[in-house]
Design goal:
heterodimer, A: 251 residues, alpha/beta, nine-stranded mixed β-sheet, two-stranded antiparallel sheet, 11 strands, globular, B: alpha/beta, 22 strands
Chain lengths: 251, 421
């Protein structure tokens, strides 16, 4: 079993995020970077599947970005990825082009399963997994909240507005992960020590032979105004009355 | 620009500043508390709050025991539970640690403190979720427990507000005003606050506040981590399960919302230069990296005592900053070179539980010039102009060593000793 986990490196969204003065991007001077939380969930799921199989199965973490992306890939290796691939690319990419690059990695590595976050928490695009499945002409299951590996196929629960939908997909397939699939681990001491010796290949983006064709143009970033409309009420009764009125007004 | 006056200005709205403000106001003093950010954030907002009353030093033990009375009074006033009296347990897995426990039990009994040896089989009965087969000895203190930091903050705040304390948030102090060897107040971006007495209760920022008054306060900012497991039906943790201290493994634990808090005094903790942190640094946003070596060591130690905890266990990791001093005791009181400038910082991981009595002591020092407690071991000037404690490099090294060795050194408690625990 070979599982490919594409990841994105994003600013830690639990920090205070502001746009740069010229609106060209996010002010990232003091911002720590992390593996996109949904991708960390995908990685954790891949590691759990491989731990359960207990054979020579592999989880390969992939990152596309600037040279210091290797830091986040080392974290992925410490969490249990078998090896990592860093596609060095200094250009900012939209989901379509990320999917095209990932397709080349998939063709090289020939994984049985691609597990990735349903979206990245920086741009919330929620497109890359779907693009990749379409480009590969593979079956896809998005927003997985439970994943079960069966002989030659995978069973996926997805949370929808109408309840839990269960899909069965033949492998190879693309599965994107939702929040409740698992809780990613903190690396163990053994994991951190082993990570130092695991292979981490760096590939210049040009080597993949994909002519990048940007389809999305970012016009401007600006910080949204936070409006606090808190109000102090005197009693619980008053609160209940207010809630009744507000609900009534909306109904 | 505003100009306001008060009897006392307090810098910092963590438990140290809030408790001091409350005690001063209860005595009728007018108090303004200036907080750089939010009330009860900072180290206070991340503390586990373990209360072990028995210390190597009898006076410190007395302070902790008396603190519980203050807390019980606060509970009556606010109607909320602050002190959770779970009892506490200390375990020994080596002969040295067993001797340590024996001396602690002897000291406790000599002052009439409720403490008993507990056999490993009895420990297993009390704590089914803990590994006990390697224990040589243990002792149990039924009157220990923990203080709930958020509820304690609310208590200080409620009484303080009722007594007229003014709290100003998002108000970092940028200058300490003084002339002729006397403090006169402080300046913030909004204006000046005048008072003959100023208290530096800045926690990890305390050494920077001291520098504003041209003083050297030997405190340093040290990183700390603990984990909180989610409730697990296979390993239920009763909310009244005793706190556990395992100094050999550097661990402490207590129950929390059906799960278990496990914290570590790491041998090589992170060190922080508070000056280099962003101006709007908010401790509640600190986050451990998924491959943090400190977290990995915490997981390893936790697994040794609680084999069901490993890297796959659902948990949250809390990280924050503690303020250590070279001897792990706080600095409380004036420095010789600036009259009216008081310091109240450096609680080395014990700020929550020491705060009730420390607030009382600070109010006594400020209003009476002396305290009903023997404050020799916590005097602010005990390293004043002492060689080796004057540069930031020396101070940070000594505080780092103290923090790193905090749980590992063997403690020799005697009823008359003045060491610390």
């Amino acid at each position: 079993m070979k599982i490919l986990v594409p990841t994105k490196r994003v600013p830690d969204t639990d920090q205070k995020i502001t746009a740069t003065a010229d609106g060209s991007g996010v002010a990232s001077d003091h911002l720590p970077f992390v593996v996109n939380p949904f991708d960390a969930i995908a990685l954790e799921e891949g590691v759990r599947i491989v731990e359960k199989l207990g054979d020579d199965s592999e989880v390969i973490a992939v990152g596309i970005g600037e040279a210091d992306y290797v830091q986040q890939l080392r974290t992925a290796l410490a969490m249990g990825a078998t090896r990592a691939i860093c596609v060095e690319c200094n250009q900012s990419l939209d989901p379509w082009n990320v999917a095209r690059l990932l397709k080349e990695i998939v063709l090289r590595e020939k994984p049985d399963l691609v597990l990735m976050g349903k979206q990245a928490v920086d741009d919330d695009a929620n497109q890359t997994g779907q693009f990749l499945a379409a480009l590969l002409d593979w079956p896809q299951a998005t927003f997985a909240s439970r994943v079960e590996l069966l002989a030659g196929e995978i069973r996926v629960d997805r949370e929808t507005d109408h309840g839990i939908e269960t899909l069965r997909l033949p492998l190879p397939a693309v599965v994107t992960t939702d929040l409740r699939l698992n809780e990613p681990r903190y690396a163990s001491m053994a994991g951190i020590m082993k990570a130092k010796k695991k292979p981490l290949d760096v590939i210049p983006v040009a080597e993949l032979g994909v002519a990048l064709e940007p389809r999305v143009e970012v016009l401007r970033y600006h910080s949204s105004e936070t409006v606090r409309r808190g109000e102090r009420l005197r009693s619980v009764d008053e609160l209940v009355e207010r809630l009744r009125q507000d609900v009534g007004a909306q109904a | 620009m505003t100009t306001q006056s008060a009897d006392v200005i307090i810098i910092g709205a963590g438990v140290a500043g809030l408790s001091t403000a409350m005690q001063l106001a209860l005595r009728g003093a007018s108090v303004i508390v200036l907080e750089r950010e939010r009330i009860g954030n900072g180290s206070t907002g991340r503390a586990a709050g373990l209360l072990g009353q028995l210390r190597g030093n009898v006076e410190h033990t007395r302070m902790l025991i008396d603190g519980i009375d203050i807390v019980r009074q606060l509970e009556k006033t606010t109607g909320t539970e602050i002190f959770v009296q779970t009892g506490s347990l200390r375990v020994a897995e080596t002969p040295e640690r067993a001797a340590e426990i024996a001396s602690l039990v002897a000291m406790g009994k000599s002052i009439g403190f409720d403490i008993e040896h507990l056999r490993a089989s009895e420990v297993a009965k009390k704590l089914p979720y803990m590994r006990t087969d390697d224990l040589l000895d243990a002792c149990y203190c039924p009157t220990d427990g923990h203080l709930q930091p958020a509820e304690l903050v609310s208590g200080y705040l409620k009484v303080g507000k009722d007594c007229g304390v003014q709290y100003k948030t998002n108000s970092p102090v940028i200058e300490i005003l003084h002339a002729g060897g006397r403090v006169q107040g402080v300046r913030t971006a909004e204006g000046e606050y005048h008072a003959p007495k100023v208290v530096n209760a800045g926690g990890p920022w305390s050494y920077l506040n001291a520098e504003l008054a041209n003083a050297t306060l030997p405190t340093a900012a040290i990183g700390h981590y603990y984990l909180t497991t989610r409730p697990d039906p296979n390993h239920p943790v009763d909310r009244m399960s005793p706190a556990i201290r395992d100094r050999e493994l550097r661990l402490y634990t207590r129950p929390e919302s059906g799960g278990l808090i496990v914290g570590i005094y790491d041998a090589e903790p992170d060190q922080y230069n508070m000056r280099k942190l962003p101006v709007d640094f908010d401790m509640s946003r600190m986050k451990a990296a998924r491959d943090s070596i400190q977290v990995a060591r915490l997981l390893e130690a936790a697994n040794a005592r609680f084999p069901w905890i490993d890297e796959r266990t659902p948990m949250t990791i809390t990280t924050g900053i503690m303020t250590f001093t070279p001897d792990a005791r706080p600095f409380c009181g004036e420095m010789p070179d600036l009259e009216g400038m008081y310091h109240c910082a450096g609680f080395s991981g014990h700020g929550i539980v020491q705060s009730p009595t420390i607030g009382l002591i600070m109010s006594q020092l400020i209003l009476d010039g002396q305290s009903s407690y023997d404050c020799e071991s916590i005097e602010a000037d005990r390293y004043f102009e002492v060689p080796g404690y004057m540069t930031r490099t020396d101070i940070e090294q000594r505080c780092f060593d103290m923090a790193g060795n905090y749980y590992t050194k063997i403690e020799k408690a005697t009823p008359v000793a003045s060491g610390h625990a």
